[in-house]
Amino acid sequence: MAKGNIYPVILSGGTGTRLWPLSRALYPKQLQPLHSELSLLQETASRLSGDQFAKPLIICNQEHRFIVAEHLQAIDIQPEAIVLEPIGRNTAPAAAVAAIILAEHDPEAVILLMPSDHVIRDSATFQAAIEAALPVAENGALVTFGIQPTSPETGYGYIKKSDAIADQPGCFAVEAFVEKPDLATAEIFLEEGSYFWNGGIFLFTVANFMAELERSSPEIAAACREAVQKSITDMDFHRLDEESFAACPSNSIDYAVMEKSENVAVVPVDMGWSDVGSWDALWQVLDKDGDGNVTSGDVILKGTSNSLIRSEDKLVTAVGLSDTIIVATEDAILVSSKEDAQDVKLIVDELKSQERLEHISHAKVYRPWGWYQTLERRDRFQVKVISLKPSAKISLQRHQQRAEHWVVVSGIATVTRGEEVIELEENQSTYIPIGMMHRLENLTKDELQIIEVQSGDYLGEDDIERFDDKYGRD
């Protein structure tokens, strides 16, 4: 590791429930290209890839590990590590794990901790704010970045600045962290001018952060040290020990450390920031047409204004609407007023209570070997298209409750079918009975696509018994 650099630590564990149906547990908003052609994770990593930064450390859900790795590879960024959380424990443990790992190699490391799913439109101003904050952090303070408010927002916490820090232009002591206010209070904050949105971005040395954590939340520090000590390296991933990390208290960095520390500074910054926390927030940061509409996909509008209309699949039309959100995916449609966009999470809660699957995965599901998409599902059968990347293969597996019929659409399939291995070309097919060991491989340099027809009493994805897997899955 290079000493003297800032180590970006990018938190990529959220699920973005307020951006359902596009954001789902297995493919959340940080992995989506919402603001540009890049995913939000790629945007975040790209803006932290200058000469002043070391390689980033990514902390993510283990379910997302291959997609995260592919997104970074696609923009030629080699991470310092991809750390896998076996269970979500909020931002304080995530920061602690990063500090412990980095300190092993560079005791003087400076961490820039930030979420993976925010938009920052003015990267140059952000870079300047980091430069202003760095000397303060190296002198022992925990630095947070206060976002210049543009409206009386009730969905964010606030930071109130105090006196300017001597000889450090643009840096101030923190007087208080303030919970999300009601509208009247937020209007007072906006008028007063000394309150800033808490964007969840921090700068500190590993030594100073761990010293503060040991003092204020020693149980978090102890659990995270044990989780790192007992962690294992799996391919390109750093797996935290599940038992140790599960025993760690769940707490935010604000509650566990920042609000308890006596040495906290804030750097106010106006950098075109948004947490993209709702469809309305996304509408605000995207380019609009002459009627104030944001559209994506196959959309036709008449007499519609100030709305966000997005289609991932079929044609969507709207007539005579205003201030409306419509998002259509392959398997779900959301219609909401912009005013109530924050309450989309209530729909996700209802899906969970009904034990439905639409909050977990899309019709198109990504796997380390490629992807599959469900085309049709009925009682006792379903039809999927399966796509394998070049040199990819699924696990050697069998099913106890379903049979499968494979038809090659494009490419050449190498199929393990019991004791035999066969090759299938376009329009050729094979049948996998219940209980037969099988594997699908793509040994070519071209994409392989097949149509899979499943039949049986139970068609769930948990009816997979793996015997060998290139990607280290159970």
Could you please say which CATH topology of the largest domain applies here?
Spore Coat Polysaccharide Biosynthesis Protein SpsA, Chain A
Assigned CATH architecture of the largest domain: Alpha-Beta Complex
Largest sheet report: 6 strands, antiparallel
**Count of helical segments?**
11
Radius of gyration from the alpha-carbon trace, in angstroms: 24 Å
Instruction: Provide the β-strand percentage band.
Output: 25-35%
Distance between the termini: 32 Å
Low-confidence spans: none
CATH C-level class of the largest domain is Alpha Beta
Oligomer: single chain
Q: What coarse outline follows from CA principal-axis ratios?
A: globular
Number of strands: 30
What is this entry, summarized?
With 474 residues, the chain is of the alpha/beta class. The protein is built from eleven helices and 30 strands. Helix content is 22%, strand content 34%.
Q: How would you explain this protein's 3D organization?
A:
The chain is α/β, with parallel strands linked by helices and 474 residues long. Strands 20-21-22-29-24-27 form a six-stranded antiparallel sheet, with no helix packed on it. Strands 6-9-7-8-12 form a five-stranded mixed β-barrel. Strands 14-16-18-19 form a four-stranded mixed sheet, with helices on one face. Helix 3 crosses helix 7 (218-229) and helix 6 (206-216) crosses helix 7. The longest helix has 16 residues, at 123-138. The protein starts with 5 loop residues before the first strand and ends in a 6-residue tail after the last strand. The mean pLDDT is 95.
